[in-house]
Structures are given as structure tokens and as C-alpha cells.
């Protein structure tokens, strides 16, 4: 079970994790302030889970849908925002390919709790065809709209969270559109990006 501390400081996130993964242990994750994500260069290409509610422009043409509990791989960080990959914008078969690529790019063994992927925004942009499915997953998150607590998910847990039984719950947490609609939109973006030079 997760620590009582998490339940005290972020009851919504704790309740979500208790429901999604009741066997998750303290050693499987690291609890931190969402405001500190990306403050250290070693955070890049690590995976973070946080709550995200009431984003600016929700329901508009620019932001017709969003994810309530993004679980993202960090690409860039600025004082007011982070840029990250949210693989749940992809259907499971394409998500698996992207996660396999991210894990193949780990800088150490998957069991190393400090391991992180080498995947970067420049890599995605420069090798557009190989990383075409990453483009619809690239999202910017405002820090002031993120829950104040985040969970770092260690690489050894990535397949379970992104592809295992838990992933079905994550897939259901989009607001504004069905997952089928979101996945169809993402596949259209992937096709367009693969044609660009």
C-alpha cells in the first residue's frame, strides 16, 4: 500500500492509485511536488503521473478533450509549463510500440530505479517517420493546473501501467471525447507527420 503521507497530501491521487493499482508499494514509486518536475536534468525522459483538471480552453476547438490523470514521459520543462509524451492518446497496439521504443532507449537496466529513457523532443522531430506515433502524444501542461503532488513511476512499472490491466482505467479518464475518437484523431496526426520531410 502507498504511504499515509500521500493520502494526506493528495487524497484524489491516492484514491485513484488505490483503485487502479491496490498492490502498488512505496518502493515502486516516488512522491514529489509537481512543481519540481524538470527542475533537475535527470528528470527528463522519466515518467510522472499527476492530476490535471480544468485546463484553460477546455471544450474549445483548440482543446476539445484532455486526460484527467496524465501519465507522461517528460521532454522539456519551463517555469510555468512542462512538455511531455502522454502515450494514452494512442490505441493499445501503437502505444505498445512507443513504450517499447522508450524502454529500448533506457540509459540503464530497467530494474534500475534511476534509469530514464534517452528519448527527446529533438530525436522525435529529427526522426519523424520512426517516431510518428509520438507526435499526437506531445502535450503541454501548465503547472498551475496540475495537482500539487506527482508520482514518479519507475521504468520497471511502465509496461504494467501503459499496457497492463491498469491501462484500461487510464484509457477511460478522458474528458470531452471517447477514446475511440481520440485514437482516430491521433492516427490521423501520425499519418500526416510521417509524410513530412
List the defining traits of the structure above.
globular; two-stranded antiparallel ribbon; alpha+beta; 8 strands; 197 residues; 20% strand; six-stranded antiparallel β-sheet
Q: Which structural class do the helices and strands define?
A: alpha+beta
Q: Beta-strand percentage?
A: 15-25%
Largest sheet data: 6 strands, antiparallel
Q: Give helix and strand order, one letter per element, not per position.
A: HHEEEEEHHEEHHEH
Q: Specify the number of helices.
A: 7
Q: Count of DSSP E strands?
A: 8
Global shape: globular
Radius of gyration: 16 Å
> Please, how many domains?
1
Helix content: 25-40%
Distance N to C terminus: 48 Å
Low-confidence regions: none
Strand order in the largest sheet:
1-7-2-4-5-6
Q: Please state the average pLDDT score.
A: 88
Put the structure in a nutshell.
The chain is α+β, with helices and mostly antiparallel strands. It has one domain (4-195).
Explain what this protein looks like in three dimensions.
There is one protein chain. The protein is α+β, with helices and mostly antiparallel strands and 197 residues long. It has one domain (4-195). The chain has helices at 4-9, 11-20, 92-104, 121-126, 158-163, 165-171, 179-195; strands at 29-33, 47-52, 66-67, 71-77, 81-85, 138-142, 146-153, 174-175. Strands 1-7-2-4-5-6 form a six-stranded antiparallel β-sheet, with no helix packed on it. A two-stranded antiparallel sheet has the order 3-8. Strand 4 (71-77) and strand 5 (81-85) form a beta hairpin. The longest helix has 17 residues, at 179-195. It starts with a helix and ends with a helix.
Amino acid at each position: 500500500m502507498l504511504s499515509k503521507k500521500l493520502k494526506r497530501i493528495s487524497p484524489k491521487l491516492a484514491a485513484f492509485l488505490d483503485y487502479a493499482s491496490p498492490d502498488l508499494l512505496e518502493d515502486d514509486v516516488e512522491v514529489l511536488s509537481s512543481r519540481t518536475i524538470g527542475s533537475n536534468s535527470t528528470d527528463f525522459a522519466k515518467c510522472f503521473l499527476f492530476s490535471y483538471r480544468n485546463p484553460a480552453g477546455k471544450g474549445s476547438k483548440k482543446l476539445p478533450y484532455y486526460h484527467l490523470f496524465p501519465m507522461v514521459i517528460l521532454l522539456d520543462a519551463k517555469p510555468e509549463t512542462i512538455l511531455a509524451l502522454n502515450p494514452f492518446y494512442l490505441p493499445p497496439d501503437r502505444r505498445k510500440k512507443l513504450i517499447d521504443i522508450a524502454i529500448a532507449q533506457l540509459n540503464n537496466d530497467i530494474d534500475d530505479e534511476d534509469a530514464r529513457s534517452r528519448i527527446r523532443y529533438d530525436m522525435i522531430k529529427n526522426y519523424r517517420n520512426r517516431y510518428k506515433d509520438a507526435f499526437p502524444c506531445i502535450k503541454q501542461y501548465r503547472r498551475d493546473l496540475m495537482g500539487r503532488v506527482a508520482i514518479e513511476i519507475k521504468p520497471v512499472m511502465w509496461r504494467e501501467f501503459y499496457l497492463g490491466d491498469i491501462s484500461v482505467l487510464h484509457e477511460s479518464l478522458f474528458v470531452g471525447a471517447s477514446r475511440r475518437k481520440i485514437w482516430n484523431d491521433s492516427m490521423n496526426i501520425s499519418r500526416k507527420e510521417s509524410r513530412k520531410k
